[in-house]
Amino acid sequence: MAMNKAKGNMYPFVTHTWNPIRGRCKHDCEYCYIKRSGAMGWTHDTKLIDKEISRKGGTQLGEHNFIFIGSSTDMWGKWVQDRIIFDVLDYCGRFRYNKYLFQSKNPGRFKDFALMFPDKANTYLCTTVETNREKLTREICSAPDPVNRVNDMAILKNHGFKITLTIEPIMDFDLEDMLTYIEILQPEWVSIGADSKGSDLVEPDGAKCRELVDILQKMKIELKLKDNFKRILFNKGAKK
């Protein structure tokens, strides 16, 4: 699959997506649209699509693009072979004038490839924290717990990487703990979105979300609020 223009409910700041790695994501998140649709090789094990990085005409990543690498699966899952990740990062490094977003619920693996990423000035590392509550996390996926994700990202922050955080789909949370996560990471931005596929998640009420947004704005944290978040943000009740 060639590089695609970003569309739909994608991050608005991303210009393209590129998915050279495809296959079943073993984090198995209940809300995953790829899982529900069976798209992008969900039924087979994760593999590299060799033609994407072929020296004889692989996907050309161009210049001055902001590319989300691996938007259809978690290419940093512990089941993905090191060689596959190495090959993708090596290919990205050939296109020096792009910005790259790498996102994972297993960000501890970012550390294993710290020397392989493209220029740190143009590389953004992101993790998802739907909630701070371990119990809720365990109910919807098998990814590492939120506190472990944050701790791993904090190490990467200390090594000079640009860190971003996405709270999507937002689930019920404890305000103080969530703010502590953000204070630790001091991310370049925080993106917040809601479930838009009817996954029956336990969601926070609007008042708590408005308080979170207000405090982050006072902290001068850049916020990127998705349109689907408005459903919760402006509601008085919570979905239980």
Fold and architecture overview:
The chain has 240 residues and is of the alpha/beta class. The protein has one domain: Alpha-Beta Barrel (TIM Barrel), CATH 3.20.20. The protein has seven helices and ten strands. The protein has helices spanning 33-37, 82-92, 134-140, 146-158, 175-185, 206-218, 230-233, and strands spanning 4-5, 16-18, 21-22, 47-48, 66-69, 99-104, 123-128, 162-167, 190-192, 223-225. Strands 1-2-5-6-7-8-9-10 form an eight-stranded mixed sheet, covered by helices on one side. β9, α6 and β10 (223-225) form a beta-alpha-beta unit.
- Based on CA atoms alone, the radius of gyration comes out at 17 Å
Largest sheet: 8 strands, mixed
In the CATH hierarchy, the architecture is Alpha-Beta Barrel
Helix-strand topology string: EEEHEEHEEHHEHEHEH
Spatial shape: globular
What's the gist of this structure?
The relative contact order is 0.12.
Write a concise keyword list for the protein shown above.
240 residues; 8-stranded mixed beta sheet; TIM Barrel; two-stranded antiparallel sheet; alpha/beta
SSE blueprint and pairings:
Blueprint: E1 4-5, E2 16-18, E3 21-22, H1 33-37, E4 47-48, E5 66-69, H2 82-92, E6 99-104, E7 123-128, H3 134-140, H4 146-158, E8 162-167, H5 175-185, E9 190-192, H6 206-218, E10 223-225, H7 230-233
Parallel strand pairs: 2-5, 5-6, 6-7, 7-8, 8-9, 9-10
Antiparallel strand pairs: 1-2, 3-4
